[in-house]
Specification:
The complex is a heterodimer of chains A (about 110) and B (about 240).
Chain A (H helix, E strand, L loop, with lengths): L7 H5 L1 H5 L2 E7 L6 E8 L3 H12 L7 E6 L11 H5 L23
Antiparallel strand pairs in A: 1-2, 1-3
Chain B lengths: L3 H19 L8 H28 L6 H6 L10 H4 L5 H22 L5 H29 L3 H14 L16 H18 L13 H18 L1 H5 L6
Classes of the chains: A alpha+beta (about 110), B mainly alpha (about 240).
Chain lengths: ~110, ~240
């Protein structure tokens, strides 16, 4: 691991110092999709699954667990949030709200 | 119905090993491990509770699970010696957990078919919990055995300390449960974990010596001294 800035909590906890971070995704009983629920430190992916079971499914939250190394995720830049997402606010025509739904289709 | 002595062997083994695991609460090597180990401790204590409730209800006159857990004398406990072995370090804790869970899985599996329906219901759930405990311990055991020189040294020290206690497993008799099948399943699971950990598997341990049994009684006495202290100092206390 690369050198971390001096952070007493990190130095005191061997897990945060030596173990890589994993993002945890859980699929609930009703859900079809795995949802991000948090992260944890573990020595490898199999260990991360074991720990995720204890940290994130203690209250029957899920029926399936995914873990992904946090450093495998590429994120959009927070400082580009405005230019990325604000322009969509004015483009209401991209929402399919102008169609008349035939009565026999029912709820969509 | 299974005899009370059998139920107490299982209940006390779970209660004592659960308390041992709970001693790590707040001291785990990492936050995530701390939670995992505390969950396992709660599973074991939950199994003990369920069994002690059955024992308590079948006594005449009936008593309470709390009286059995907190007011029985240490000499009346029937736990396996292995369950009381001190934590010492994480290698000792993990090996104790592995050796115990590898034995409990086939025991619970067999009891799941027991004609004693109260116990069969408890065993069904406990078998799942014991599998999680066995998997968790096995993962660590492989890391320690096949890890660094230091982890290997600690793993070897844990084997030296704990393996002799496994001699007791072959002496346990549970009505309706084939002892050879349990031992064979235990041996397979342990052998498999030791092989992946590149740890040499010791030969089968002889029956517990008098010296070891006395040592285990001392461990239990000290453990119960702490576990029962609150209930004994404040009889009938509630929260």
């Amino acid at each position: 691991m690369s050198a971390q800035p001096a952070n007493p909590a990190n130095l005191a906890n061997p897990a945060s110092r030596d173990w890589p971070l994993f993002e945890v995704f859980i699929r609930s009983k009703q859900g079809l999709d795995h949802k991000h629920v948090g992260s944890l430190h573990a020595s490898d992916a199999a260990h991360a699954i074991t720990l995720a079971r204890d940290v994130y499914t203690r209250r029957q939250e899920g029926v399936s667990i995914w873990v992904v190394p946090s450093n495998a995720i590429t994120a959009s830049a927070p400082e580009q949030k405005a230019e990325n997402f604000d322009p969509m606010a004015s483009k209401i025509y991209r929402h399919p709200t102008f169609y008349d739904i035939p009565a026999e289709v029912g709820h969509m | 119905m299974l005899p009370e002595s059998t139920l107490l062997t299982l209940a006390d083994t779970c209660l004592i090993s659960g308390h041992r695991l709970s001693e790590w609460c707040g001291h785990g090597p990492a936050l995530e491990e701390d939670i995992a180990l505390t969950n396992t401790a709660l599973d074991a204590i939950g199994q003990a509770r369920a069994l002690l409730q059955v024992v308590a209800a079948r006594r005449s006159p009936a008593i309470t699970e709390d009286a059995l857990a907190y007011l029985r004398e240490p000499a009346q406990f029937a736990n396996l010696a292995l369950a009381a072995a001190p934590n010492t370090d994480y290698a000792h804790t993990v090996l104790r957990s592995l050796l115990l869970a590898a034995w409990l899985v086939p025991v619970w599996d067999a009891l799941g078919h027991s004609s004693d329906h109260d116990i069969a219901a408890i065993a069904g759930n406990a078998a799942k919990e014991a599998r999680v405990q066995r998997r968790h311990a096995r993962q660590w055991w492989v890391r320690f055995g096949d890890g660094t020189a230091e982890s290997r040294r600690r793993a070897e020290a844990a084997v030296a300390a704990l393996w002799p206690l496994t001699g007791e497993l072959s002496a346990v008799r549970i009505p309706g449960v084939d002892p050879d099948a349990v031992l064979s399943a235990w041996w397979d699971a342990v052998q498999d974990a030791f092989a992946e950990a590149t740890m040499p598997l010791p030969t089968a341990a002889p029956p517990l010596s008098g010296e070891l049994a006395a040592q285990a009684a001392q461990w239990r006495h000290a453990l119960l001294g702490e576990m029962q202290s609150l209930a004994r100092q404040h009889p009938g206390a509630r929260w």
